[in-house]
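Q: Hi! First time asking for a complex rather than a single chain. Here are the components, and I think there are two in total. Is that enough to go on?
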Amino acid sequence: MIAIIDYRAGNLPSVERAVRHLGYEAEITSDPKRIAAAERVIFPGVGAAGAAMESLRDLKLVEVLRRDVFEAGKHLLAICIGIQIIFEYSEEDDTNCLGLLPGQVRKFRGPDIDGKLKVPQIGWNQVFQKQVHPIFRGIPDGSEFYFVNSFHPVPDSSDIVIGETEYGYRFASAVAQDNLVATQFHLEKSGPVGLKMFSNFLACGRA
Amino acid sequence: MLTKRIIPCLDVRAGLVTKGIAFRENVDIGDPVAMARKYYEEGADEIVFYDIAASSDRRDILIDVVDRVAREIFIPYSVGGGIRTFEDMRRVLLAGAEKVSVNSAAVRNPQVIAQGARAFGSQCVVLSMDVKRVERSEKIPSGYEIVINGGRTPMGMDAIQWAMRGEDLGAGELVVNSIDADGTRDGYEVTLTRIMADTLGIPVIASGGAGIPEHLYEVFTEGHADAAIIASMIHYNTYTIPGIKQYLADRGVPIRKVPMMQ
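A: Yes, that's all I need. Here is the structure of the assembled complex.
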């Protein structure tokens, strides 16, 4: 079973529609048992880090995500606010996050951004592949994906960065470790290349 | 690099796509779901649906269109026209739209912008405005006035000031539709677009007047637009999205490549 984690973060139906379009059934759930029983888990979302962490705590999903999903080695795909929540800390609302991966989340700022670029960035931007990874199978390097973000991950180690994007400077737009893959861009709204990456995630580890 | 977005607009009336000239004499063109899918496959960066005959009894038809589109296209799309209340916003977003655009209702009740932004996030709320060039005056220092009801009712409000207010209230993007240019195919209102783009901290989407690919080039370069809405130039097959994108890319405008894959 594919579980899409419901933590009141919006845009869950678009993720479900994309999964269904690819011929898979998914269940939108906040039930810790269903999530623990899932074969793979999608952690989507739009919204703010503070509210997202609060919802996860209310729903008692923090430990479930850490222990039953990440440490248990389930295939986990985190999207948009998902990629931010998996790091240790976000500047947004001064939020302590899940800490599945070492690193922080910072707001876009700097001499090449302030007064020159709009924050949030909204639109299609290129993802440059930094590592060979099964999630990129069949995706041309430098393909454009759909972004809406004011904040971006700053991982402690560049070893986990599989994709980078330029917005004032280069930032980590896709990271991966073990069975976890996370993207700052919205796969469910990135047209054919987004669907292809979804399909790569849904197929990985299957015989 | 962030690319410039090309956004086909489908004017929907009673479940069919129409495109009129200066908001009058609308003619039916086709099925919105089929047209949305075609533009999606051709590389549209986003799609806008505008319900031009928005009345409450027709709203269910639009919701059905939104729902059907959501199953078939996987790029962002927004819905506007007759969105009056927070509840209207919620229905459209739940049916699958990424964004909802408010126009006249926001002029009458600006708080609808704030309510939407608080509940769904600014990225969901697009402030759309119809603007007409007028004599500069104390009330309208920029010489650009807000009009509503498809351009028929002048509001005595300065468009630039209203745009700034909309941003402060939480709008995530701004559509600037020039009533003077709309339907003329003579080009966008480049000056107005540039003032808006340079003044605001949110993306500005130019609307009204596109007739040839050069008009998009002008509004992206001189007009500083982040995105541009097109309609009749592609609805009647005069131009295609891949053709327009190629034209812009050849002239150095950052454009999302049309994906060549299943």
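A: Chain A has a mean pLDDT of 93. Let me know if you'd like any chain examined more closely.
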